[in-house]
Each structure stands twice: as C-alpha cells, then as structure tokens.
From TrEMBL:
<dbReference type="InterPro" id="IPR029787">
    <property type="entry name" value="Nucleotide_cyclase"/>
</dbReference>
<protein>
    <recommendedName>
        <fullName>diguanylate cyclase</fullName>
        <ecNumber>2.7.7.65</ecNumber>
    </recommendedName>
</protein>
<dbReference type="InterPro" id="IPR043128">
    <property type="entry name" value="Rev_trsase/Diguanyl_cyclase"/>
</dbReference>
<feature type="domain" description="GGDEF">
    <location>
        <begin position="267"/>
        <end position="400"/>
    </location>
</feature>
<keyword id="KW-0812">Transmembrane</keyword>
<keyword id="KW-0472">Membrane</keyword>
<dbReference type="Pfam" id="PF00990">
    <property type="entry name" value="GGDEF"/>
</dbReference>
<dbReference type="InterPro" id="IPR000160">
    <property type="entry name" value="GGDEF_dom"/>
</dbReference>
<dbReference type="InterPro" id="IPR050469">
    <property type="entry name" value="Diguanylate_Cyclase"/>
</dbReference>
<feature type="transmembrane region" description="Helical">
    <location>
        <begin position="207"/>
        <end position="224"/>
    </location>
</feature>
<keyword id="KW-1133">Transmembrane helix</keyword>
<keyword id="KW-0732">Signal</keyword>
Amino acid sequence: SETPSAEAIKNKTVVIKSVQTPVTQVLPINPDLTELLVQLKPSTVDRHRVEGLLAKLTLSKAPLNAAEQYLLLVVQALVKEKLESTAIVNQDINKSNVVELLAQAEKLSGQIAEEQLVQPDFLQLHLILAAHFENQGNYESAYLEKKYYLKKYHIYRKNKRLAMIASLEKSFEMQDKKATNALLKSQNELKFRRVAEVKEEQAIQQYNFTLIIGTAIVFILLFFRQLRVRNKLIRLTLTDALTGVANRNALFESGNSMVKRFSDQPEELSVLLLDLDNFKNINDAYGHNVGDKVLMIVARLVKETMRSRDLFARLGGEEFVALLPYADIHKAKAIAMHINEKIAQFNFSLIMSQRQLTMSIGVATMNNKEMKFDELLHCADLAMYQAKEQGRNSVVCYQHIAESQERRADTNTAPLDSEWEF
Ligand SMILES: Nc1nc2c(ncn2[C@@H]2O[C@H](COP(=O)(O)OP(=O)(O)OP(=O)(O)O)[C@@H](O)[C@H]2O)c(=O)[nH]1
C-alpha cells in the first residue's frame, strides 16, 4: 500500500466541508480516527501505524462530518506536537501551525453538539493548546486553556455520571419489572396449579360420590332381593307345595293366634275338617298323578268358597281344614254344606273316568273360651269321623255329637245316625 511521507502527512490540509447537521445530534466518528487518537496517547508513538491510519483517512473518498473534521485537526496538531518532540520530523515545522490547526477545529464547534464537544477526545484540543502555550512561556493562555478544559471536563464527567445513574435506574427499573413479571408469572402458575388441583379434587369427590351412591344402590338392591328371597322362603315354609294353600305350619300358627284372639271376644270361631271320601281308590285306580290333580282341584274349589278373613289349609294327605272367624255354628254348617255340594257336583271327568267325588266334613265351634286350637281341631276331627261312619258325603257338627252323648247319658239310649248328620 502507498504510505505518504511524514512531510506530506504534516502538511496535509483539511478541507472543511460544511455539513448541515443539527447541533444537538451526536455525530458518528470514523473508527480509524478513534484509533489514531488512541495511538497518539502513549509517549512513544508507533509512527508507521499512525502514518498508515492517516493515509487511509486522507485517501478515503467518504466525506467527513464536522466532528470528524474537528478530530482530524486535533490529530494533525498532535502529530505535529509528538513528531516534533521526538525530533523525527524536520526542524522547520512551524509551531504556530498547531495553533492554526486547532483554531480551525474550534471554528467547527458550532456544528457539533455540546454533549460531543465535552468528550475527552474533543477536549484534547485545549490540553494541546495549554501545553503549546506553556512551552512558549505563555502561562496565562496555558492556564486559561487548562481552566477551560477542566470546566468542560467537569461537565463531561457530570453528564457521564448522570447518564450512568439514568442507565442504572433504567436497568434497576428493568430488573424490578422483570422481578415483578416473574412474580406475577409464578403467581399465575400457582393459580393455574391451584385451579387444576381444585378440579382434580372435585373430580375425585364426584368419583367418590358416584362410588358411594353406586355402592349404596347395590346394597339397597341386594337388601330388597334378600328381603324378597326371605319372604318367599317364609311363604314357602307356610305354603303347601302341591295345592298352594296354607300348610300345616301356617294352619297351627294362625289357628293358635285366632283361638287366643276369640277367647277374649263374644264372637265365635268355627273350624271345618274336610276329608275326601275313598281317596285311596283314586290313587289306586288312576295313579298318584291323578290323585294330586284331584287334590289341587278340590283345594281350588274349596278356596273359592272362602271369605277373605278365612284361612284354608291342607292338614296332610287328603285332609283340609278351614278356619272361619266370626262364624257361629249355623254359618259354619252352611259353609260346610255349600262346600260339600260344590265338590259333589264337580265333574272330574276331565282328569279321570270317575266323574264324582264326595267329602266328609266335621264342624266344630269354639263354645268354650278356655279351648285350645288342638282341642277345637280334635272336635272337628271327631265330627268328621262321625260323618265317615255315617256313610261319608255328609257334614257333622261336633256340638250335636256332644249334645247327643249327653242325651244318651241321660236316657241311656243309643243315638240315631240321623241325629248327627245335617
Ligand atoms: N296322590 C296323593 N295321594 C295322597 C297324598 N297324601 C296322601 N295320599 C293318599 O291318600 C290316601 C288316603 O287313604 P285313606 O287314609 O285310606 O283314606 P280314604 O281312601 O280317603 O278313605 P276314607 O278317608 O275312609 O274315605 C292314601 O292312599 C295316601 O297314599 C298326596 O299328596 N297325593
């Protein structure tokens, strides 16, 4: 690269270009110029480097702004000072050139912002002048330049301090804002997490509630099923499996309680003991299946004649019992005869060739309030046997047997069969 001679560098004149820039605006500085100023700071200057940078700047076609022109003049003044002091350059360099150069630079001050002018690189102008005046023995001017330098430097320091405070405040505000933002963010996250937790708790509660309700429903259903099964079992234990009417257990249970109840009240309780005549012959002739069917038909026919308050039960085999509350002997006899008639009139030809069946019925009424149910049933049984003995298909009332026996005891005469039958 072409390196201009020191002479050329020293004599290089600066062409001041008027650049219209606002005075408040800080102008950009070419980095080569800034480095030149740095290079010129130490007491021993790297001449080649300085010359290289100056040449680069001089040959550059880019126009210089007012601040750059100012600094270039300062650089040139410094070069003159430094190179002269190191005795490298020619002795005929006019020292007044420094003053001229710096005077030119000062003329540019009006185009440079005050803020930029107070920067150390720009203020060097006054230091150079002060040193220059001092070397010439012009101490007053040197003093004034130095004083001016210090005044401006003070402003520069003050501005720098204020700028630093402002930047610190700004960074503090930023940090404060960042911390506040972080706090708000973490608070938001906490809120979201809490909301999620609450939702999760609600879901668990709902699940538990559903589980409890479901379990409760299952338990209730099981309880009712158990109740139904229990009731069915109870019903079965009280029902005759073949005919569906009350069985022996139910008969004795109801019979005992009814007798107890009627022992306290004036109304009467009657019992019918019904026995199919020659039922064995049916079994023998047509088989047990037909016999069972007959029993079922008879049970149904008798049940149809019962009042809602009555109880009809199968005592066992072909024997049935009817408990008739609020039925005196006359009513009980009437019911018994109605049953007898109904059975006798029923046509069994659908299940067997024998069309007709008859019944023997014994009737007993609770005539003694001290009577037990077994005794009442026994009376009915005696009456029923009497009916069988009389030739079956008849109704016999125990009260009449008793009366007849009493009479017989009185007259000591044998009773007539017709006396007992109705
Ligand atoms: N098919 C059937 N027969 C039964 C049942 N229980 C008892 N028997 C029969 O009923 C018959 C009763 O016979 P008996 O006690 O001699 O009485 P009967 O033949 O009716 O004669 P009388 O009572 O004197 O008129 C027997 O043959 C028993 O086997 C039953 O549940 N089903």
